[in-house]
């Protein structure tokens, strides 16, 4: 199966993997099954007979996945994953099956997970001395101020 879409998220974020039925009609959720899975064995989320059925869910996703239950009957089968982790980086399959008509619809969503952007640390004083004249030397100092302030406040409270 080819990719339908690609999503990007940073570690710790919440991401929505989009999946909708076309045409968007009213779905009978009590007669539907929805699988979200990675490959053929890793179950990410399972919905059947109008409710979540998470007994077989992979424990790495435990408590982190949810569907848009109020929008599902209108064809929104998207999956929300909270607190995204690096190991969530994978190709997900959204498989919707109607139990009566045995119609199956499948889409594939690639999730790319990146580490959160690093906060640059201020240069050490030895590096500051090497800055050529004419460049803004005061910029790194602005970063140092809040750090020292945060360290002083707890110490100050400690002595009260």
TrEMBL record:
Pfam families: V-set. Keywords: Disulfide bond, Glycoprotein, Immunoglobulin domain, Membrane, Signal. It is found in: Membrane. InterPro entries: Ig-like_dom, Ig-like_dom_sf, Ig-like_fold, Ig_sub, Ig_V-set, IgSF_BTN/MOG. Residues 106-133 are annotated as: Disordered. Signal peptide: none annotated. The keyword Transmembrane helix does not apply. It comes from Motacilla alba (White wagtail). GO terms for molecular function: signaling receptor binding. This is VTCN1 inhibitor. GO terms for biological process: regulation of cytokine production; regulation of leukocyte cell-cell adhesion; regulation of T cell activation; T cell receptor signaling pathway. GO terms for cellular component: external side of plasma membrane. Residues 12-110 form the Ig-like domain. The keyword Signal applies.
